[in-house]
Each structure stands twice: as C-alpha cells, then as structure tokens.
C-alpha cells in the first residue's frame, strides 16, 4: 500500500487486522486465515524485563531450545545477545524481535505497517528474504523503495478516500500512476 502521509494506509491496515472498526461498511477476514500484524507501534507489546530468548520462546512454546536459538540467530541475535533484556535493545533490535515472533508462527496472512523502520540494511535484507519465502499473503505499507521493488506484485494506492489497485510490481505502478521511476 502506498499513498501520501495521512491518506489512511495505517488505518486501513488496522481495520484489516481487526484492531479498529471501519468508519463505513465492514471488513471480514476469510475462514482459515491466520493473521499476524506488525504495527508502527509493535515494539510497545514487548515486555521490557523479558529477554530476547524468552520473548521468542513465548511465541513458540512447543519449540526446543535449538529451534529458538536458530530463529534468534536468523534475526541477528546470537550468543549472549539472546539473553539481553528487551529494555536494553535499540529500536531496530526490538523490531527484529517482534518480526521473529511473527514469522515463527504458522501464519498465512501478514499485515505489516512500515516494517523496515528502525532496521539497518542487514536486518532489512533478512526480513526481505524471509518475506520472499513466505507462502501466504502479505499486505504492507512501506516507503522503502528497494523493499517494494524486491517484494511486491500488486500495489494498492490510497488517495483522497479512494483505493486504486495496480496489478503489477512497483515499477509497473510508477509507470501507470504517471510517476517517474525513482
């Protein structure tokens, strides 16, 4: 999803995620949809006193220690860093923890609101790789052009209360919407 700031992109994602009621009409998520939502304030759900390991383990209570450590390592938490308390992490590290807990669960619909905010280049590439392998549906808002170019196959533009769909990649959207390639 793209659009100018204030166009309603985040609000639309909140409606899809069931976090807020639509101002008009209704939103219904289909049967057998297992949804995960990463909001711009997703880090607020983390418990400051918990460690990275404990937080990931909470998302995967049936997993063994090796599986949890491997998932932590995939999101750049290795060795003693898995024992760091959430309150001691940077914004990017907190984002990585939340994304790891989301992508670890058996979801088939991800809603991501600015998931690359606070992430360094290496973390963005790890997230991009994980999303490229994700077998379900991803709806996301991002201003990260590289991320959009590498991931999306449909662009929805929110503009003046209207939603326009472009059935192609980000470059296709730019051409059809009359923007110069950036």
Describe the overall structure.
With 182 residues, this protein is α/β, with parallel strands linked by helices. The protein has a single domain, classed as P-loop containing nucleotide triphosphate hydrolases (Rossmann fold, 3-Layer(aba) Sandwich). 37% of the residues lie in helices and 13% in strands. It is built from seven helices and five strands, in the order H-E-H-H-H-E-H-E-H-E-E-H. It has a three-stranded parallel β-sheet with strand order 1-2-3, with helices on both faces. Strands 4-5 form a two-stranded antiparallel sheet.
> How much of the sequence is in beta strands?
5-15%
Number of helices, counting only DSSP H or I runs of 4 residues or more: 7
Shape label: globular
Share of helix, binned: 25-40%
Largest sheet: 3 strands, parallel
The CATH class is Alpha Beta
The termini sit apart by 17 Å
What multimeric state do the chains show? Answer: single chain
| CATH H-level superfamily title | P-loop containing nucleotide triphosphate hydrolases
- Structure summary, number of beta strands: 5
Main-sheet strand order equals 1-2-3
Topology order in helix (H) and strand (E) letters: HEHHHEHEHEEH
Going by helix content, strand content and strand pairing, the class is alpha/beta
